[in-house]
Design a protein that fits this description.
Layout: H1 35-44, H2 47-72, H3 93-125, H4 134-161, H5 163-167, H6 173-181, H7 190-207, H8 213-236, H9 244-272, H10 277-283, H11 285-310, H12 314-334, H13 336-341, H14 347-358, H15 361-364
Length: 370
């Protein structure tokens, strides 16, 4: 294997083994249960292990960042600080822009995963069947994809930021990368998990209409018109686009619009055009992935904001708020093109966000860069 070589793997084969009925996975379904309901019960068993995998991905991500940041605060290269020594590589803008947003992101995923863990605990202690909590299933599936993808991306950046030292086995980044690589496959492929997130969001959305196509169409049309009016009004108002509140509103706007439009697209394809449901779903997979990631980003930022508010130590709260703002700004920076297309922000506001993310003020006040 390319990683996790401390874990033994093998192949099990069974030859004419009889399984008692009470031990079969299919003991749960009843005769009139649909294939979808049966599948939902089966994958609900993976909720707890997906939460555990999130923490398993967050651990090496934090360790990799600690190694890279400590190295950057010792390694000197080029320049002159005035006392004859060269510049710390952490002083370079590009180095800060590579590492600090990743540190902010792993904090966000930590708080979001803790929230998911609490929801799981509440369901287990309250004896709520996990397959009935679609909201938690969507959150956990999305977080598993987000945290494991971030782990791989962050560890690669940490490796590069340590130069040749990062390639040395003794400095651990190489082994962390190898072991984290398979996390995107464990407990479900990440791209497939994003489909589960979208399906659960669609199920929650459609449940409010009670199966009425007319209600769904009217609601979609009216809310889309309202969203366009709101986005137009936002462009006319003076807003603080570099505030966390603005970012939360923007992420909520994106999620809601993507969800309504995806529901409308699928309804048009399946009910009106009589397309095969699988083919219709396949034609919308890019839409599905965008919706799922928007949902996870919004939840992660919300839980980061709540964690800042709960922080009891004044000095720690200030630092957490700085990282929360950085995470929000980098999310918004990545959404600028889409928000411009939807007329949610102006080109001037987009440029302001770019300048905020690019300039050193966002990084130099952080204690970890000193």
């Amino acid at each position: 294997k390319s990683g996790l070589n401390g874990v033994d793997n093998g192949i099990l084969s069974f030859d004419h083994v009889r399984i008692p009925r009470e031990n079969l996975l299919s003991k749960y379904p009843v005769a009139n249960m649909s294939d979808g309901a049966r599948f939902n019960i089966t994958i609900a068993a993976l909720v707890a292990t997906r939460v555990a995998l999130c923490f398993q991905a967050i651990g090496p991500t934090k360790l990799g960042l600690e190694i890279a940041i400590k190295y950057a605060l010792q390694r000197r290269q080029f320049g002159n600080t005035g006392d004859g020594s060269e510049q710390l590589i952490m002083d370079y803008q590009t180095h800060q822009m590579r590492l600090m947003p990743k540190l902010a992101t792993v904090l966000a995923t930590t708080f979001a995963t803790r929230y998911a863990c609490q929801l799981l605990n509440d369901d287990v202690c309250g004896k709520v069947p996990l397959h009935q909590d679609r909201q938690m299933q969507a959150l956990v599936a999305g977080l598993k994809a987000y945290t494991t993808w971030e782990a791989i991306d962050t560890l690669q950046i940490c490796r590069e930021c340590c130069g040749g030292q990062g390639f040395m086995e003794v400095n651990r980044l190489a082994s962390l990368k190898r072991d984290a690589d398979v996390f995107v496959t464990f407990e479900g492929d990440n791209t497939v998990l994003l489909q589960q997130v979208a399906k659960d969001l669609l199920a929650q959305y459609s449940s409010q209409f009670g199966g009425s196509k007319l209600k769904a169409v009217i609601h979609t049309l009216s809310t889309n018109i309202k969203a366009k009016l709101q986005s137009g009004l936002k462009m006319l108002r003076n807003q603080n686009v570099t505030s966390i509140a603005y970012v939360l509103n923007a992420l909520e706007f994106k999620q809601d619009l993507l969800l309504r439009n995806l529901a409308a697209r699928l309804m048009d394809k399946v009910r009106d055009k009589r397309e095969n449901p699988l083919s219709a779903w396949n034609d919308c997979l890019d839409h599905v992935s965008a919706l799922s990631l928007a949902y996870v980003h919004q939840i992660s930022l919300k839980k980061f904001v709540e964690a800042v508010k709960r922080c009891p130590e004044k000095d720690d709260k200030v630092v957490l708020h700085q990282f929360c703002l950085m995470y929000a700004m980098h999310l918004l920076h990545g959404e600028r093109a889409w928000l411009l297309e939807q007329r949610y922000m102006t080109p001037i506001e987009s440029k302001l966000i770019r300048d905020t993310v690019s300039h050193g003020e966002l990084y130099m006040t952080l204690p970890v860069t000193k």
